[in-house]
Every structure is written in structure tokens, then in C-alpha cells.
Amino acid sequence: MPAKAPIIVIKKKGGHGGAHGGAWKVAYADFVTAMMALFIVLWLLNTSKPVKEAVAGYFKDPSGTADKTGSDRAGVGENFVVNKDNMDQLKQQLETAMKQVPDFDKLKDHIDMTITNEGLRIELMESAKGTFYDIGSPNLNADGQEIVIKLAQELGKLPNKLAIEGHTDANSYSKGRNYSNWELSSDRANAARRLMQLNGVSENQVTQVRGFGDQRLRKPAAPLDPSNRRISVIVQYLALTEPQDANATGAAEATPESKGADAKPADEKAPGARKPIADTPAAMPASPPH
Predict the structure, then answer these.
(1) How far apart are alpha carbons 216 and 228 in whole angstroms?
(2) pTM
């Protein structure tokens, strides 16, 4: 009798349902990602304008000069320190940033940036009809506010100190008035300082507000030229603006609580020392074009 063949039993495993496979993990990951994106959007909707611009700047240029990572201080980079070696880089970045300002084409001829021994000097020059300020007034107009706010957003991230200057032309006020080019120049510099400190520049970043009246003409051969009426923002080299104590420089520190002319004399040994100017009256009388 032949040997009985072994019995072979083949067992088939039943297929798992969708809930027991791995496809649900992919769907769950997509859901979590979508929820995270939703919460980020909700957070952005409740943040301040500088933070929104900082985030937008990062996505526009994540690896370039924007370097905006959600800080409440928008600008050229959290760790960017201006010195004599990279001041030209800051100049290029500011020029690029200001091109985003509406109507920049009509303003560009009135903006000048030069690298000096003190730092980067940014000058906003007036025209015969007024460019950044109303004629004879210390108040910034709409174009002036746009440019100053953009500068504040860019310079606010720097650790470097700032000095702000005001200048007028040689067209003087009538005798007997309690207001002169000294007050106008310092008031305009202060108006720029206040707006910058509301839009990214910290209170202790501005160390000097200087009013020169008509004593530092841009065009000495043409003292009535409109370009002599200007404000200047100086980004100072970091090494030159960190004294060991507050008495080392004697520089006047401007604060938002300051009233009238904040220009005060600096120590004669400090860079950019200037003579003091008169206090500003509470109200400005009518004036000729400046």
C-alpha cells in the first residue's frame, strides 16, 4: 500500500480594512499640517503691522537681505552690525527698501546717501514747493511720512545709534518773531525722530537731535537753494557710539516725551558736536517758505 501523501493546508490571510492600513497616517498628517497653517494665519491676523511686514519680508527673500523672522522690529537683519567695512552694503539695502515706497520715482532725486567718517548720512532734501515737509512747517507731509517710516523699519533692527539733523536755507524769518531757522530745523528733526520711534526705532537708539538752522548749507554758493532745506539721518559706526558711561559723550538723548526743540549741545570731544540752539515755542507763527 503506497504511503499516504502529506496534506498541505494553505491559509489565506484576509485583507485589512482601510482603518487598519497606513493610509490614515498620511491623511492625519495632512490634517495636522492644515490646522497648523490655520493657527499661523489666525496669529498673524492679530499681530502688529511691523510683525506682518517682517513675516512678509521673509517669504519675499528668505535667504537674502530681508532676513525677517517674526521680530517686532523689521529691518536689514537681527545681527547686522554696520561698520566701515559693510556700510556700503547697508546703503544698497536701504536703497532697495525705499523703492517700495509709493511714488518713489518722484522722490528719488531728493534722497541722497553718502558714507562719511561719522557713518552713513541719509539726506531728505526739499524742493521749491516742498517735498517731505509742508512749506514753512515742521510737519511731515504724506510723502515724508512714507519715507521716514520705511527708514525706521529698516534702521530699527540695527544696534547702531542714530543722529538726526535739521537744516534750513538762508531765507530768514521777519525780525521780531519768536521763531527762527533754529527752531524750524530742530522741530523738523524732532518730527522725524518721533515718527521713527513710533515705527521701529527704539527710544535709546536716537542719541542726538541737532538743529543747525542755516549754518550748514548744502550749497554754500546758493544759500537760498531749496536743497539746503533738509533733514539728515546718520547711522553711526557702532564702535564710535558706545561710550563707557552716559557722561562720556554728553550727547542729548531724545525721548518721545520731549517737547519743542530737543537739540542739545554734545561734548566738544564727541563726534558731530554742535553748538546749542534755542528752545521751541509752543506754537509756530506764520513763516516764509522754508
Answers:
(1) 8
(2) 0.55
Q: How far apart are the first and last CA of the chain?
A: 128
- Any idea which of 83-92, 116-125, 187-196, 232-241 has the lowest mean pLDDT? 232-241
Helix residue spans in 22-156 (DSSP H): 23-45, 49-60, 87-98, 104-107, 142-155
Q: Based on C-alpha coordinates, what's the Rg of the chain? A: 30
Q: Report the distance separating Cα 69 and Cα 258, nearest Å.
A: 33
In 3D space, the residue among 261, 164, 172, 163 whose CA is nearest the CA of residue 214 turns out to be 172
CA–CA gap between residue 19 and residue 28 (Å, rounded): 12
CA 55 to chain CA centroid, Å, is 16
Write down all domains in the chain, each with its CATH number in brackets: 36-72 (no CATH), 81-290 (3.30.1330.60)
Given CA atoms 251, 234, 107, 59 in this order, what sign does their dihedral have? negative
The C-alpha atoms of residue 281 and residue 180 are separated, in whole angstroms, by 10
Residues 6+ apart with CB under 8 A from 102: 146
Per-residue pLDDT tens digits for 42-64: 888 888 777 777 777 777 766 55
Closest CA to 74 of 43, 48, 101: 48
Cell of residue 64, nine digits? 537674502
What confidence score (pLDDT) does residue 2 get? 64
As beta bridge partners, residue 243 has none
Helix axes 181-197, 142-155, angle to 10 degrees: 60
Residue 200 per-residue DSSP state: T
pLDDT digits (tens, 9 = 90+) for 217-234: 999 999 999 999 999 999
* Distance in angstroms (rounded) separating the CA atoms of residues 196 and 155: 9
Coil, strand or helix at 209: strand
